[in-house]
Amino acid sequence: MVSFASDYNNGAHPLVLQHLVDTNKERSESYGDDIWSRHAREKIRLACQCPDADIFFLVGGTQTNATVIDGVLTGYEGVIAVGTGHINVHESGAIEANGHKIITLPSHDGKMWASDLEQFHSSFFADPVYEHMVIPGIVYITLPTELGTMYSAAEIAQLHELCRAYEVPLFIDGARLGYGLMSDECDFDLPWLARHCDVFYIGGTKIGALCGEAVVFPKLPYTAIDGQTTVVKGAPRHFFNIIKQHGALLAKSRLAGVQFDALFTDGLYFSISRHAIDMALRMRQLFLNAGITVRPSSTNQQFVVLEKLQMEQLKRSVDFETWEPLDDSHVLCRFVTSWATTEDDLSALAAALQSL
Q: Which pick of 28, 236, 278, 312 has the fewest CB atoms within 10 Å?
């Protein structure tokens, strides 16, 4: 059966796997001091144009979100996210388990609007008893969003300016960052993104690695809201200890280091991400040619409206995710491409659609 169920149902990209094999017999330091992690950090700094960035390698997305958010917040603070945000719906209460409330704002096709964020902050601090409430301490967005949509540079810049004004960091979940950056709709690059947030991560698990996420604190100078003070923000104090406290510290740090060293050699991370986009756009056209509605998305996640009978027939030969029921006869389904999607996969899908 051909699978479009997720972008992490394959192993590692062959070049990543080969790098793991080639370095397997070499001895190394641990806990992030291995030579490959050092090389990977330098390559990521170069790609981000952030020469002083603090970079840490963790294992998976939920673990990364929970560790970063808990590391940034104090005990009385919460995180602002849209209702459809990954931390709010698909992480089994990982944020709440660390004692932090998720403060939800409306979702607009998966995106947070700066106007909603501004309205929330102004209303919150205008309340004379706000100190009795959970203080907003960080803003969280995903790129691309959970619904496969993209933020524009202008939208991110507006959010970032508001976060500066209210002195809260902007955190970008980049589990699928490569697929967002290589989208035709994306009007910015990685260095621009690094200058318009306080922390983000580069997803590896979904983009060519066996596992691993690279957390980046850009540590770039910018002018504070008073217009005079230059502020350089990096990782929270003792973030290494915070990572270990969350059980997120790899003793064999080479596992992540070797993989990101490969992914950021010769632009591999970006080329394999673009491959997934190309496959997704071709897959999208297959559905449209079959007269099937597909919701707007320029990323590797395509959300398709299927009749229940169509869905049942298609599931006999194609693996995909049932997202949500729309009415008595229609279901929204998600089809996902990845770095590993092949021509044969698309041909099999085309044949299945012809048989409906």
A: 312
